[in-house]
Amino acid sequence: MKTVIPMLIAVAGLTAANNVQAQDVEAVQLYSDAELIEMFATNTHLTRVRDTDRCQLAQDIEAQAELERRPTYQFLYGDMMAWGICYDRDPELGLLYMEKAAQHGLLEALEQLGRYYHEGVLVQKDIERAILYLREAASSGNLPAQRRFAEILLADKGSPYDYEKAYHWLHNAVTSTESIHRDIEQKLTKLAERMPPSVVEKAKRPLE
Asked: pLDDT (tens digit, 0 to 9) for every residue of the chain, 208 residues total?
């Protein structure tokens, strides 16, 4: 009996530990598109899959990106590959999947690619390509893209014909963050200085 009891205790301990691990795995559910969009907006998606969920969904994420071709998962998978999160780092493949998501119209992918080409992150700086991505995202209401697009125009890049669009988007932007609100006001003032008053008034029209 003296040798059996410790073995029983050990077996019980292993069973309990396995049950806890199984519960942890079952507790991690596949993310919804809405959850991913929210994580993208707060830039918490990479820490979520790596630190919180401990890469348990890596295979599911890859399957959703490759087989189901869901844009949100293509972007997530691409970002993970680009920075070596839960996978071996492969920036080229990561950018390919970000591009796939952008082609499906995912605003977050369009904005990030525009930002990368603007800043020269993972790719060589290419202002013209940055403008293409950012203009597309900005026209659909992505605020970070709208602000960066205006920033590029105010740096005398791009076309002056886009001043009115940039003003229109920012004038109708909604934000509860005081620092962003001030930044938008400053950009609007500088854009207005580059346009006739009649064009500024036209740009103030409400969003359709």
From this structure: 444 444 443 444 444 444 444 444 444 689 999 999 999 999 999 999 999 999 999 999 999 999 999 999 999 999 999 999 999 999 999 999 999 999 999 999 999 999 999 999 999 999 999 999 999 999 999 999 999 999 999 999 999 999 999 999 999 999 999 999 999 999 999 999 999 999 999 999 998 7
Distant-in-sequence, close-in-space partners of 90: CB < 8 Å, separation ≥ 6: 81, 82, 84
* C-alpha–C-alpha distance, residues 6 and 127, integer Å: 69
CA angle at 192 for the pair 178 and 148, rounded to the nearest 5°: 55
Say what the pTM is: 0.84
Instruction: Give the number of other CB atoms < 10 A from CB of residue 27.
Output: 9
Q: Cα–Cα distance between 76 and 87 in angstroms, integer?
A: 12
DSSP state letter for 31: P
Alpha helices in 43-106 (DSSP H): 45-47, 58-66, 71-83, 91-103
